[in-house]
Amino acid sequence: MRTLFLLILGISLFSCTQKSGQLKAQKESSSVVKIEKSDAEWQAELEPLEYRVLRKAGTERAFSGDLWDYKGDGVFTCRGCQLPLFDSQTKYKSGTGWPSYYEPINKDNVEEDTDHLLGYARTEVHCARCNGHLGHVFPDGPKPTGLRYCINSASLDFVKRKEVATEK
């Protein structure tokens, strides 16, 4: 129920439609509207692990997240602001222990930056609306993109496709 309520709040910029059996998020405006909150507001809204991952660029242990092996049909949204990020039809088993996708639901919803936290360059991905850390993208994924978006479960919520489709 929490997920559905948050999705309704976050869907104001997007309408979800089904096309060729795949859910697509279509932007109603030309850019994602950013949201900003104080550190105290984020801490009050998020669980400790969610806060550490989304706001402090942490990571959860491999194979420990609630969504790494989840096989439901629907949309994975940002846990911080409910922006639609990945369609379940682009999720695949990478063997890494984190949810992996070969492309975002909309390229404008996920932004990239380079981090050097491990002593070498990696491409970090974060939510375009709330700037929450999601994980990293690597060039070793499957076709058609060859990309592996390796995302923390703690940074995601899941909404079943039938719930999204009825909330137009």
Structural features, described:
The protein has 168 residues and is an alpha+beta fold. The chain has one domain (2-10, 45-165): Beta Complex (Metal Binding Protein, Guanine Nucleotide Exchange Factor, Chain A). It has helices at residues 2-10, 39-45, 48-56, 161-165, and strands spanning 14-19, 22-27, 74-78, 84-87, 91-92, 100-101, 110-115, 122-127, 133-138, 148-151, 156-160.
Give the SSE layout.
Blueprint: H1 2-10, E1 14-19, E2 22-27, H2 39-45, H3 48-56, E3 74-78, E4 84-87, E5 91-92, E6 100-101, E7 110-115, E8 122-127, E9 133-138, E10 148-151, E11 156-160, H4 161-165
Antiparallel strand pairs: 1-2, 3-4, 3-11, 5-6, 6-10, 7-8, 8-9, 9-10
Features of this protein?
168 residues, alpha+beta, 3-stranded antiparallel β-sheet, 11 strands, 31% strand, globular
Overview in brief:
This protein is an alpha+beta fold and 168 residues long. It has helices at 2-10, 39-45, 48-56, 161-165, and strands at residues 14-19, 22-27, 74-78, 84-87, 91-92, 100-101, 110-115, 122-127, 133-138, 148-151, 156-160.
Give the topology string: H per helix, E per strand. HEEHHEEEEEEEEEH
The proportion of residues in beta strands is: 25-35%
Helix content: 10-25%
Looking at the overall shape, the CATH architecture is: Beta Complex
Spans where pLDDT lies below 50 across 5 or more residues: 1-30
Sheet bearing the most strands, described?
6 strands, antiparallel
Looking at this structure, what is the CATH superfamily? Peptide methionine sulfoxide reductase
State the separation between the terminal residues, measured CA to CA: 17 Å
CATH class type: Mainly Beta
What is the global morphology? globular
Overall number of strands: 11
Strand order of the largest sheet: 5-6-10-9-8-7
In angstroms, what is the radius of gyration? Answer: 15 Å
